[in-house]
Amino acid sequence: MVNTLTRIGFLATLLYWQGAVLAAPPTDRVEELIQDLAAEKGYPTQTLRELLQGASRSQLVIDSLNRPAETIHTWKTYRPIFLKQNRIEEGVAYWEKHRETLERAQAIYGVPPEIIVAIIGVETFYGKRPGTISILDALYTQAYHYPKRYQFGRSQLKAFLQILMEERMEPAMAVGSYAGAMGTPQFIPTSYLSYAVDFDGDGKRDIWGNDADVIGSVANYFSKHNWREGEAVALPVRAVEPGHPYYVEPAQRATPPDKPLADLAQAGIVTGPTPVTTDAKATLLHLQGAEGAEFWLGLDNFYVITRYNHSNLYAMAVYQLSQEILALKNGSAS
């Protein structure tokens, strides 16, 4: 009985403490963040305090983070979300509108237009659905009112303050997702600092309203993650039956290519010529498609796509959308 009462008392204390953290202004921890950033970058502490004055706890962000996990998709259910005809047609229109910028990005970074366009199409439907939540509120809430996201929220809030200082932005200008992904390409703040570029030379890295900066930033992201210019992304291969030494179960999370193509060819999985060298490596992918099991080889460039989002399904959606956009564009041009 005493142990039971002790446990109840402990749980009550824990719940009270968590409620207090959510309700009380975390002024000490905010000030600690301000002092850290001021010491690292030399920013005036008063300016940082003023930027954070408008930050508020967002119940919408908390509710979104508390929602049950999304449906666990298979390729059968995931593919139709992104491979819709209107997304393909809008992709061609976006390409045609920004043709010169996309060609310049390819010349500088080596990333083909169809891949850049497909990323933008999957992330925000070509900038039309970037999210409407204040990034300041989203990150402030995660850092100081949602303990499970404290480390992520604090690091991203710190990076976001650096963006505001460097870009001379007002916090209200930055909107995005409840998780803190920003603008058309959905960069989190640390990704923005590492990969966003001023691609039109206007002195700003604007991933909210400047398509040139969006295109250049996405291309730079892929380049910095070792995109291999001119190389294939993925290859369909023959079915691999259970019991085969190379058989794999469907996997959501991406892994680096680790199987030599020569070994896969010797095992009879790869037949005929391939557009990559025999010393290349690949990941064998098993997808549950609408017509049954599909097997693919994910090459180095496929893995690069998964550095944007670590899901194999995401990377395959980007790749197949890119190919549909390319095919429609080439067909409409002929």
UniProtKB/TrEMBL annotation:
This is Lytic murein transglycosylase B. Residues 1-23 form the signal peptide. The active site is at residue 123. One of its GO terms (molecular function) is peptidoglycan lytic transglycosylase activity. Pfam families: SLT_2. It comes from Sedimenticola selenatireducens. Residues 30-323 form the Transglycosylase SLT domain. Keywords: Signal. GO terms for biological process: peptidoglycan catabolic process. InterPro entries: Lysozyme-like_dom_sf (IPR023346), Lytic_transglycosylase_MltB (IPR011757), MltB-like (IPR043426), SLT_2 (IPR031304). Coiled coil: none annotated.
